[in-house]
Amino acid sequence: MIKVGIVGLGYWGPNLVRNFQSVNGAEVHSVADFDNNRLQKIHQLYPKINLCNDANEIFENPEIDAVVLATPINTHYDLAKKALLKNKSVMVEKPLATSRAEVLELMEIADARGLSLMVDHTFLYTGAVQKIKSVIDSGELGNLQYFDSTRINLGLFNPNWSVIWDLAVHDLSIFDYISGGKKPVAVSATGIAHTKMGIENLAYISLFFDDDTFAHITSSWISPVKIRKTLIGGTKKMIIYDDVEPTEKIKIYDSGFSVSTPEDMHKWLIDYRFGDIYIPKLPQIEALKGVAEDFIRSISEKTTPLGNANSGLNVVTILEAAQKSLVNRGETIII
Ligand SMILES: NC(=O)c1ccc[n+]([C@@H]2O[C@H](COP(=O)([O-])OP(=O)(O)OC[C@H]3O[C@@H](n4cnc5c(N)ncnc54)[C@H](O)[C@@H]3O)[C@@H](O)[C@H]2O)c1
Fold first, then answer.
1. What DSSP string runs through 173-228?
2. What number does the ligand 1 atom closest to the CA of 166 have?
3. Atom of ligand 1 minimally distant from the CA of 71
């Protein structure tokens, strides 16, 4: 039985408690939060779970094998490092940390101690993203040409971290996964902060690669409507992934274009193909349960989870470069 301690019981933490409680071979041993009301809410639902205000009590407890962090972004590195140094495997909420250097240090500590270090990239565990991944891996899509993702709503402003650390992190983790860890060579981001806090609440990230793939991500906390839509284009087919759709989240279009290149450059012809549209049936699974199971498996069976530290590193590397570009009005940052 893997005993888990969960730190942070704000908006997201209670979902983690519920899911870890339901994983075979795991039990939530303790939870920590500064806020006693939040602790009491968990106590009412799960009276056997120990409560504490100080996360160090969890890190110091020899009965606890694994720590899950659902605290604000700026605390991730510090708390994860403390837990790893106490020989706990650690799963951190997205994003894994706030810089590439921090992630690399955490990876080094985890590797040296044979501990699991994972990040909750929740969307990788959805039926929709699993389907997209299988369509790409089977070759049905052809070569990836573009990934264009919009994640916008009237969202809660974070006082410390721009919208890309809150929302684009999801799109970047999905891109990283479905593309098999494809790394951009350069990043450019533009956006705006509409408050005196100076934290960008609207942003556009472009990713450039050393081939003809292109990725673009729109993130916003100031949209009147909620949109979660990703267009993925390949040389053979195209996918629309609409996460707001209750069931028909994925549509696969047998559409595309091909260019004939005659010797006379002025006679270029572009042929368009409009074929069938296929809507695959997706399994109804709770992604967070998959996350919790993957973390526990990574500890008990020494497997590599989907949300592994490398994917966390790839995502944070891009976020860090994008943030640098964002404050310099779109300056191209070479990675
Ligand atoms: N995977 C997802 O889809 C998803 C969704 C929402 C949030 N998140 C992530 O979850 C994390 C938390 O976000 P949230 O919205 O729940 O934040 P929140 O502010 O609602 O809650 C954070 C909680 O952590 C507690 N806390 C902070 N530092 C602590 C410490 N040292 N010891 C004990 N308790 C501490 C706070 O008291 C608070 O209750 C963030 O990393 C966020 O990006 C992920």
1. HHHHHHTTS---SEEEEEEE--STT---SEEEEEEE-SSS-EEEEEEESEEEEEEE
2. 43
3. 24
